[in-house]
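[step 3/7] inverse_fold.run input=structure_tokens len=232
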């Protein structure tokens, strides 16, 4: 936090050159790229379970005895709602909370883009309003996801020990929720800097841009989650 405070102070005093500004942008780009790789690993685990492991257990590639030996009552379908221990669960439907959360994050990208245009136009009032709306939408998303987890655990019996489906569901949505939390906090800090300190100008606002890049990245990850975890 001390380093961030020093960077903010030096930036506000105009001590950073164009080259250093370019370095910050490159660093943020590489950071987001590393986050992309992070989520690709988890999506890879999901696709492996669906495309490789499930057919293999069903006897694909001339392994007809695999299921009989390892899991006699195995049924090749996704999501896997039964475990070898006999535990059964229900799949999380894509309608309802997941759909609403998708619309909320899409709306938050729109409001954040409006705020971005406002800061470039020097419209401080619109900037504050739409950035605050974006933070609020992020908070609503997290509240609904928490409610969804309660519903999944209590009503659907979907837990971390519910086999590979429960594992991948909570792994992907949980880490995404963590990133939404981080993104919302970053946007809140940016909002407080604007409201309290009157930071950022139309010419110098990379701190805002970096937060916006991160938030749009989080939105794209959720769209993939919605499609591959909930819908397909």
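[step 3/7] decode complete -> sequence:
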């Amino acid at each position: 936090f001390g380093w961030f405070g020093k960077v903010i102070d030096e930036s506000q005093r105009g001590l950073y050159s164009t080259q250093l500004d370019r370095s910050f942008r490159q660093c943020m780009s590489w950071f987001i790229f590393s986050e992309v790789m992070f989520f690709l690993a988890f999506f890879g685990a999901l696709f492996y379970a669906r495309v490789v492991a499930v057919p293999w257990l069903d006897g694909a590639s001339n392994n007809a005895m695999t299921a009989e030996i390892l899991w006699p009552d195995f049924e090749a379908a996704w999501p896997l709602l039964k475990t070898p221990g006999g535990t059964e669960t229900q799949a999380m439907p894509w309608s309802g909370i997941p759909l609403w959360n998708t619309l909320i994050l899409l709306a938050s990208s729109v409001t954040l883009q409006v705020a971005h245009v406002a800061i470039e136009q020097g419209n401080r009032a619109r900037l504050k309003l739409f950035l605050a709306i974006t933070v609020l939408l992020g908070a609503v998303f997290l509240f609904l996801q928490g409610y969804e987890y309660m519903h999944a655990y209590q009503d659907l019996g979907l837990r971390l020990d519910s086999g590979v489906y429960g594992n991948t569901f909570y792994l992907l949505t949980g880490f995404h929720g963590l990133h939404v939390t981080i993104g919302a906090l970053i946007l809140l800090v940016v909002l407080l800097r604007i409201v309290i300190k009157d930071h950022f100008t139309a010419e110098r606002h990379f701190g805002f841009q970096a937060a916006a890049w991160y938030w749009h990245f989080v939105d794209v990850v959720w769209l993939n989650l919605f499609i591959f975890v909930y819908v397909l």
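[step 4/7] annotate
The radius of gyration is 22 Å.
DSSP finds seven helices and no strands in the chain.
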